[in-house]
Recover the amino acids of this structure.
């Protein structure tokens, strides 16, 4: 009886070991559609909507398909630990407005008592992410509310003693930034200046740049405008 019991137990143990070895080498499917598994998968966990997590049996790589996956994305967690694929550059860091425009031909700046404020006539776009700049009307229309960095500069073409002021206008009203620059220029002196300001724009606001000669007619031979949205 003792020998029979030992033999029987040995057979049971061997069967369990063999079964465990078979399972360890098998493909395992959990969840929906359990009868079907990819030929290259060691493990698949499939949701009812078809999304699945896969472990490749040759490389051990894990594939997570949850409907948010895409090239170049990174897997992130929310406050509750639920994961999803997100762009590698957060939306807050990927400016929806990136503009560079310039003036390449001389523009006159007329003068009358107290000066005349003239909108700069930009004629070339170097780039315009989002297509928010109207080159015909020389103005940016803000697609969304937020803070925008504005950088503008010019080279003067006039030779008389003078000074030139520049202003940012929003919805045809001076934005409250005041003169971006204003300095005396001796006769026959070249003059190049640039300045940057941060402005808040609401969605739909229209921004442009205007110059004013303060003592006599003048002109600009070149000018540039660069705008980027930096924050909501």
């Amino acid at each position: 009886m003792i020998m029979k019991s030992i033999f029987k137990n040995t057979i049971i143990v061997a069967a369990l070991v063999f079964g465990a070895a078979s399972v360890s080498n098998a493909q395992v499917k959990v969840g929906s559609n359990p009868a079907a598994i990819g030929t290259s998968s060691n493990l698949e966990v499939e949701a009812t909507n078809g999304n699945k997590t896969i472990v490749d049996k040759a490389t051990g790589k894990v594939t997570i398909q949850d409907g948010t996956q895409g090239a170049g994305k990174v897997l992130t967690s929310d406050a509750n630990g639920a994961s999803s694929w997100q762009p590698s550059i957060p939306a807050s860091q990927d400016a929806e407005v990136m503009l560079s425009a310039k003036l390449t031909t001389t523009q006159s700046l007329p003068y009358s008592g107290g000066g005349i404020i003239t909108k700069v006539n930009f004629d070339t776009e170097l780039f315009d992410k989002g297509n928010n700049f109207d080159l015909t009307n020389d103005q940016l229309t803000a697609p969304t509310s937020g803070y925008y960095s504005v950088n503008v500069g010019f080279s003067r073409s006039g030779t008389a003693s003078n000074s030139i002021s520049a202003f940012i206008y929003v919805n045809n009203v001076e934005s409250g930034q005041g003169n971006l620059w204003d300095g005396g220029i001796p006769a026959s002196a070249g003059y190049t200046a640039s300045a940057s300001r941060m402005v808040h724009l609401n969605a739909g606001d229209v921004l442009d740049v205007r110059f004013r000669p303060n003592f006599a007619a003048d002109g600009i031979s070149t000018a540039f405008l660069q705008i980027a949205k930096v924050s909501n």
